[in-house]
Amino acid sequence: MAEGRPPTGDELLKALAALANPHRMRIIGALFQGRNYVSRLAREIGMSRPLLHMHLQRLEAAGLIVGSLELSAGGKATRYFEVAPFAYELTPETLARAASTLTHDTDRRSAEPSGPTDPSGVRPDPQRTAARGRRTTTPDPEHPGPTRSTEHTEHTQTTEHTEKEDLL
């Protein structure tokens, strides 16, 4: 967000999406105490470094934190992060103003994990979806040659027959 002007709709969505995660809010809280580097910050908040790094990238992309690379006397590069100055006023007026500046390619999916949704907007359970769509191909003991494909569903198993099987 640029100083002295209200955020655009895209900037506001990005910041709010970044802050919608409790881990990221804890990271902002820890960095508010002072700048820190990934390994020490990970120890302090009890998070793995790869997971912390992912959250830091999201916060940095939203403009809520700033990272800087520094070289030690021994030549080791260390990346430090600190909170960037920001202030968001959330009122109906500021939200209406921000909404009017949203770009056409911005939609609710930009702030959510990617993946298919059903028409109601609900994301299907990945385990149920995987079980429902699993297909296996097995040899048909009665008819050498073509194989039959069996599709497994939650409650029943159905067999798809080839045209050759239907003719026999």
3D architecture notes:
It is a single chain. The strands form two sheets. Strands 1-3-2 form a three-stranded antiparallel sheet. Strands 4-5-6 form a three-stranded antiparallel sheet. It has helices at 9-19, 22-32, 38-45, 49-61, 92-99, 126-133, 163-167; strands spanning 36-37, 65-71, 77-83, 135-139, 147-152, 157-160. The longest helix is centred in the N-terminal third of the chain and has 13 residues, at 49-61. A hairpin with a 7-residue loop joins strand 4 (135-139) and strand 5 (147-152). The chain has 168 residues and is an alpha+beta fold. The protein contains seven helices and six strands.
End-to-end separation = 71 Å
Strand runs, count: 6
User: From the helix content, strand content and strand pairing, which structural class follows?
Assistant: alpha+beta
> Hey, roughly how much beta strand do the residues contain?
15-25%
Quickly count the helices.
7
Rg, nearest Å = 26 Å
Tell me, briefly, the overall form.
elongated
Mean pLDDT level: 76
Within the largest sheet, what's the order of strands? 1-3-2
Helicity range of the residues? 25-40%
In sequence order, what are the helices and strands, one letter per element? HHEHHEEHHEEEH
User: Unreliable stretches, pLDDT < 50, 5 or more residues?
Assistant: 109-122, 131-138, 148-168
How would you characterize the largest beta sheet? 3 strands, antiparallel
